[in-house]
Amino acid sequence: MDDSRSVLPYLARERAAVILLDLMMPYLSGLELLQRINSEFPDIPVVVITAMNDVETAVECLKTGAFDYLLKPVEPNNLVSCVRKALKLNYLQNEISSLKNYLLTDRLEHADAFKEIVTSSKKMRAIFQYTEVISPLARQS
Question: What distance in Å separates the CA atoms of residue 68 and residue 85, rounded to the nearest whole number?
Fold first, then answer.
């Protein structure tokens, strides 16, 4: 994006799995934007990519919540590896959140899939919920 001020409204409308953020940006600095993203969208990993080879800045970014801090020019393999790790973290966070949501709300989205199994066991219902949560994983394989 050309305008750092458009990032937060964009994130409010669209899902993002990872953000690659430069520290040198017009309008809002990358560090300020990092703080706002971390505050409003803490589940999105932010990878800071910058030419600023400054330990204090790197530490500040990581303390603020950056997933990683990469120096330009970024080695393509390092960038790909970093993004993969960030995507994996995002995916796992979403799975944990989904699992918590299922178990805490005691709901089944597809109760009809389990209608043939007659039970009043809370443990069995938990297994049904767990099955629903992990079923998208089975379809990906």
Answer: 10
